[in-house]
Amino acid sequence: MTRITDTIARALSGFRSTPMSRAFGSWLGKIAGGFLALLVLTAIFAPWITPFDYAAQDLTNGNAPPGWPHLLGTDQFGRDVLSRVIYGARTSLSVSATAIAISITVGMTLGAAAGYFGGFFERAVMTVVDLTWSFPDILIALIFVAIIGPGLTSTTFAIAIAYLAQFTRLTRAQIVRLKQETFIEVTINLGAKPYHILLKHLLPNAIAPVIVVGMLAIGDGIVLEATLGFFGLGAQPPTPSWGAMMSSGTAKLFLSPWVIIFPGVVVAVTVIAVNLFGDELIRALDIRDRIRDS
Amino acid sequence: MTNLLEVRNLSKQFKSSGGPFRKPRAMYAVNDVSFDLPKGRVIGVVGESGCGKSTLARLILRLIEPSTGSLRFDGDDLRAKSPAAMRRLRADMQMVFQDPYSAIDPRYTITRALIEPFVVQGRYTNGTADQEVSELLTMVGLSPGLASSFPHQISGGQKQRVGIARALALRPRLLVLDEPTASLDVSVQAQIISLLEKLHDDLGLTYLFISHDLSLVRYFCDEILVMYLGRVVEALPETDATVRHPYTATLMDSTFAPDPRQRRIIAPLEGEVPSPFDQPPGCAFADRCPRATAICRSETPVLSTAFGHAVACHNPL
Q1: Is B63 within 8 Å of A181 when comparing Cβ atoms?
Q2: Angle at A211 between CA A210 and CA A214, to 5 degrees
Q3: Using the beta-carbon criterion (under 8 Å), do B105 and A183 form an inter-chain contact?
């Protein structure tokens, strides 16, 4: 009986103090995390939330100021800015999150292999990865646009490569540090194969800082996606993207500033929220020094 | 009595790579060490920190590859084993590590840490795992209720007991103990030592006990190897054998007697352990030795049994 209550108590206390819930502990974490949760839900349920079709044009009602029924006004083609900002969240979040997911997957694999095996392999991998870091993000995006044409695929790959070096270096640094721990020597001495050591000990202990840096990188990815969209290298019309919306708004900046202001504000607030929440997560996981050592 | 372990001329040379402004340098962490470990015996290895005793432990278990020399475990040539055969054989030769605080993966529960040996060796069976874990915990004097704890929830002494339980999980024949009590409180040290004594008697284990604490080694072991800068300088066949090497004598002199009436002036060693890099010819201990003569600085002494047991000294006591 005591065993059951013990288990329940432990499960409850464990639940109460996960790093996620601790990150939500401060008021800053609550605001930032709450905003991000709201944004993700908005993006997911966009078709049910948006008051208008994001692509429906109404040329007789172009550049209408914020009011009713267009709460945030309309753009030059009479499209509802609110609906486009909501759908833009879908584009921005999914492109950035997909790109960072690719980047983390490839970066962790390369970094873990480099850190574990060392030697010439490590030097070769790290040299190539560092090379990708030396190219400006925009240039990488242009290379992809040149190869596969403008669009979200190019944007995704460009963002993935732009952040690859960061994850590779971070993972490698973690693995190299963890390899010195006694419990790794213990496991080798038990007769473990390399994959057991890597998958059951090294990677699980290395993953926390990588996830947090990934979280922060999603914020940077949103900015990069907006930048590429602004230059017309990202989402193609009529797919709404925050960057592309700002770009189309520049023509009538003084006549209808709401077209450029609202997507701009959403980008800024989202990136601030991501960074604040990421900082809270770092604090909750107590891994500030581990992130710095890459 | 057959030998479980035979070590012959074991050496490990570490090289530092050179650079544009640096010559590559080499040092022997372990230099030409030979000894036999008969089944059921306890051999102690003592020496100051940096003398190569931990390296010796890792060489014997092939956690570090030896540079030269041979290792026989139960008659088998260890160095000829393939990686797969070596992994299987590791079940027979386990080690308890010096630092219990980092010896358990912080993300593992005690149960998972104790099951890992079976998983790794492909001997894991789902039904008996809980039983095995509580048997192992009971064997090292821990409550089976600790099984679901994480390492940060238990004390250093408890962690070291878990480390011992894990090392014994696969029923090894040889247990290498690398300063198992060095980072524990004195009272806990005594508990661990008596636990190790009990396990030795109950399970018929063979121990290689590494320590810097000569009085502990004299209490715990049957034979003692004294190491200085990578070499065995004296092999005492019994713990009360007459000491011949001046270095062993100084070690003996610098142990404190717990009886205040036996308080005496101890003569601490002068000088530092010389750098293991680029050693000059002669005895490595010569600069600190009160009995050093000219030959000690020109000729390296070799182990010789001329004075009863193996001593490497030109002017033995």
Answers
A1: no
A2: 85
A3: yes
By the CB < 8 Å criterion, does B244 face chain A?
no
Instruction: Determine the pLDDT at residue A1.
Output: 46
The continuous run of DSSP H or E covering B7 comes out as strand B3-16
| Per-chain mean pLDDT for chain B | 88
Which alpha helices (H) appear in B26-168, and where do they start and end?
A: 53-60, 83-89, 110-120, 129-139, 156-168
Q: DSSP labels for B241-295?
A: SPP-SHHHHHHHHTSPPS-GGG-----PPPS-PPPSBTPPSS-TTGGG-TT--GG
B206-211 vs B223-228, strand pairing mode: unpaired
> What are the CA-CA distances from residue B115 to residues B67, B132, B167 (Å)?
34, 8, 11
CA–CA separation, B204 and A277 (whole Å): 57
Give the number of C-alpha atoms closer than 13 A to the C-alpha of residue B181, restricted to the C-beta side. Answer: 19
CA distance A41 to B59: 58
What residues have CB less than 8 Å from B258, skipping those under 6 apart?
A: none
Q: Which helix (H) or strand (E) holds B220?
A: helix B214-220
The H or E element containing residue A185 is helix A182-189
Contact assignment for A186 to B163 by CB distance below 8 Å: yes
Task: Give yes or no for residue B280 having a pLDDT over 90.
Answer: no
CA distance A57 to B30: 82
Q: Is the pTM of this model over 0.80?
A: yes
Which tokens belong to B177? 């103990």
Which 8-state DSSP code applies to residue A198? I
CB-CB contact of A263 with A256 (8 Å): no
Assign B44 to helix, strand or coil: strand
C-alpha dihedral sign at A164, A167, A170, A174 = negative
User: Choosing among B105, B112, B170, B208, which should be mutated to test the A contact, i.e. which has the most A CBs within 10 A?
Assistant: B105
Give the one of B63, B90, B102 whose C-beta lies nearest to A183's C-beta.
B102
A·B CB contacts under 8 A = 57
In this structure, which amino acid lies at residue A214? G
Beta bridge partners of B77: B72
| Size of chain A in residues | 294
Interchain contact A207–B (C-beta under 8 A)? no
- Supply the DSSP string of B157-187, one letter for each residue: HHHHHHHHHHHHTT--SEEEEESTTTTS-HH
Percentage of chain B exceeding pLDDT 70: 97
d(CA A79, CA A249): 12
- Cα–Cα distance between B60 and B316 in angstroms, integer? 29
- Tell me the torsion sign for CA atoms B40, B172, A193, B180: negative
> What number is the average pLDDT over the span A36-42?
92
**Cβ-based neighbours of A103, under 8 Å, separated by 6 or more:** A159, A160, A161, A162, A163, A164, A166, A167, A214, A217
Over residues B226-242, the pLDDT tens digits come to: 999 889 999 998 888 88
Which helix (H) or strand (E) covers residue B198, if one does?
Answer: helix B186-203
